[in-house]
Amino acid sequence: MGKTDAAYRRLFEHPAMVRDLMACTLSATLFDALDWNGAQSVPTNYISDRLKKRSGDIAWLISRRRRPGDASPPGYLCILLLLEHQSESDATMPLRTAVYTGLSYQSLLRALHIELPLPPVLPVVLYSGTTPWRASPDMAGLIADMPNDLRPYQLQMRYLLVEERALLQAGGLPDTNLAALMFRLGASREIEQWRALVHTLVQATQGPEFQELNRSMTAWLLLVAQSNAALDEPLPPVNTLEELAMMISEKPGVWAQQWKQEGRLEGKLEGQADLLLRLIERRFGPIPDDVTQRVQNATESQLMLWSLNFVDAPSLDDVFHD
């Protein structure tokens, strides 16, 4: 996990970020039935090193409010949040989610001494990639066809997919929702928009309860800004959103020029890559994930060469012949 990914993961170690993320995705009925003030972090150190490197694993235990007239214990909901920073979807995600859920239940029993019956689980995959997520949403899509007599014994698992780009494109996200603000900042290449969004974040994170989250947001935004602006020198260290907003305001011209140049090149390459992928899919059928990733990460000269190869390429391999 890179520095930017690790910093992004830390954002969702704060209950306010998880609350606002769920506000963007859950039904109002389910969201309002959860007591976000009593959110408990669930230990996730049981995850294997290999899985931990591929997925930002975060788990929260949220109390469920009693229904009117219900004298029984309110119970809990366990939210399992998997952060995916890959450039393409993961076909095995339902299986990974199932394994993760089982291990989370073990952790609840051992570390938090939760008694039976176990709380329901909501596995959430937060995807920040630029291409649409294509993986099956449940285990049924991974298992071969079988006689009906065997179906009751098969593993069943489904996850809630949250695609950041799709949420932004759909619109309607609250202006002051913390998760939505971070999505917009991560996707924006306009310095003026950044300045406005950071100002909104400053206003939305006032108070001592937001102090740690404020610092986590600042750390991630600094890494994103450094990457977007392609500045010749590292940005000066700042610790709070207020300091970041001040830094952006001091030299807006330099930032704007750098972002404008980088944005033009990035937009041009992205358009060329998308066009080549559409042409390849039309001629050769579904595109393997590794090919999609290769095209999306290609340089301008590589895209030009592959586009010329495509004109008379008899096979997919011939498109990428040097």
Instruction: List the strand order in the largest sheet.
Output: 1-2-3-4-5
Distance between the termini: 31 Å
The residue fraction in helices comes out at 40-55%
Strand percent estimate: 5-15%
Q: What number of structural domains do the residues give?
A: 3
* Oligomer type: single chain
Number of strands: 5
**Structural class of the helix and strand makeup?**
alpha/beta
**How would you sum up the major sheet?**
5 strands, mixed
Query: For the CA atoms, what is the radius of gyration?
Result: 22 Å
How large is the count of helical segments?
Answer: 14
Helix and strand run: HHHEHEEHEEHHHHHHHHH
Q: What is the 3D form?
A: flat
**Average pLDDT, to the nearest integer?**
80
Uncertain segments = 47-56
Give a short synopsis of this structure.
Residues 5-169 form the Transposase (putative) YhgA-like domain. The protein is an alpha/beta fold.
Could you please describe the fold and organization of this structure?
The chain is of the alpha/beta class and 322 residues long. Helices cover 51% and strands 12% of the residues. The protein has 3 domains: 3-183, no CATH class; 188-250; 260-319. The chain is built from 14 helices and 5 strands. α5 links the parallel β3 and β4 (121-127). It is flat. The protein starts with a helix and ends with a helix. Residues 5-169 form the Transposase (putative) YhgA-like domain. This is Transposase.
